[in-house]
Amino acid sequence: MNALQSLLKPIPQSPISGAELTAHSQRPLGKSCNSRQWSFRRFRIRCSIADTVDRSSDAPVLGSSQVLERLRASRENQENQPQFLAMYSSVVGGITTDPAVMVIPIDDHMVHRGHGVFDTAAIVDGHLYELDQHLDRILRSASMAKINLPVSYDREKIKNILIRTASASKCRNGQLRYWLSAGPGNFLLSTSGLHQPALYAIVIQGKPPSPPKGIKVITSSIPMKPPQFATMKSVNYLPNVLSNMEAEEKGAYTAIWLDSEGFIAEGPSMNVGFITKDKEFLMPHFDKILSGCTAKRIITLAERLVKEGRLRSIRFENLTMEEGKKAEEMVLIGSGVLVSPVLQWDEQIIGDGREGPLARALVDLIIEDMKSGPLTVRIPVLYE
Ligand SMILES: Cc1ncc(COP(=O)(O)O)c(C=O)c1O
């Protein structure tokens, strides 16, 4: 007999009368039973325990110190996982460096309703790269998602907390990721009964894995988010995840979305750029996609290539897939991939199928900027 059958097996006929059974089932909570009802209850429990497999070890009731012990053990059992060095939570109002307690409440609306927005910043040689630009974007995303800041928080306080979290982590090269959420309180859709919104931040050791050389991309068959949602960085990344899975299943690095009019949009975690045979650097408009902080910075940095005569111009342009595939060079652009040349899109080889000189120049520009750019893009972390 399997576990389900044993659970569904009827409880044997009890020696109690129908009237007593009714009286028992109608007994108000908290009132004591008479001895005959108690013996019926004990008999019933004995029968159901005897008839089901004892599965109490599947879900033991744990004390809080046991939970902590198990959380710690489960982290230790995860091999080759990134190291989480510090986490801030507005729910506890502070920073922890113990990965076992880097948790968020299950009743947080970001967890069960996707009502949260997020952003990132790279930590490079002890500096936060483009923190202000990413902060501006998370505040924009929060406003679009109708998420207020936690009470008594403003932009300056959030920035301070993020820098302090980086400092407490002692991380010199890694990533800072942070979220603004509608906050914990209940499992409803409405946010009106919630105590207050929440801010979470975490520092992860090391850079995100670099993309491979010789990137191949495919056209995504998963529909992209409509502009209202694609232009904000919310935690609703299911289309992005599925699009990325589709690419991996087809042996590609990532997938490219076309918008509702058939123009090239973006990838699931990056923007795209094209260098035409006329040496024009073209990028899709940001009105239906996420305005990438890296793409915006690249546009500024690439002006140098225009001055040197290596690029003719830099423009936002609606491009069809056919036009994109005919480009001399194609690049993925984003915090995770920096600038990564694409050598094949579906069956089409891009350019001569090798990393092009302008993609190389753009990579060099962004790496130099991350290591020695101006204070407007590099905030030093003062380590404790
Ligand atoms: C959908 C999407 N587009 C573009 C980007 C690139 O943005 P950024 O350069 O700010 O990382 C990202 C980054 O995560 C993204 O998720």
CATH class of the largest domain: Alpha Beta
- Give the strand content: 15-25%
The secondary-structure element order is HHHHEEHEEHHEEEHHEEEHHEHEEEHE
- End-to-end separation in angstroms reads 62 Å
Radius of gyration: 28 Å
* Average pLDDT: 90
The count of strands amounts to 15
Please, could you describe this protein's structure?
With 384 residues, this protein is of the alpha+beta class. The chain is built from 13 helices and 15 strands. Strands 7, 8, 9, 10, 11, 12, 13 and 14 form an eight-stranded mixed beta sheet that branches. A seven-stranded antiparallel beta sheet has the order 2-1-6-5-3-4-15. Strand 9 (271-275) and strand 10 (280-283) form a beta hairpin. Helix 10 (293-301) packs across helix 13. The chain starts with a helix and ends with a strand. Residues 266, 268-271, 290, 292-295, 334-335 line the site of pyridoxal-5'-phosphate.
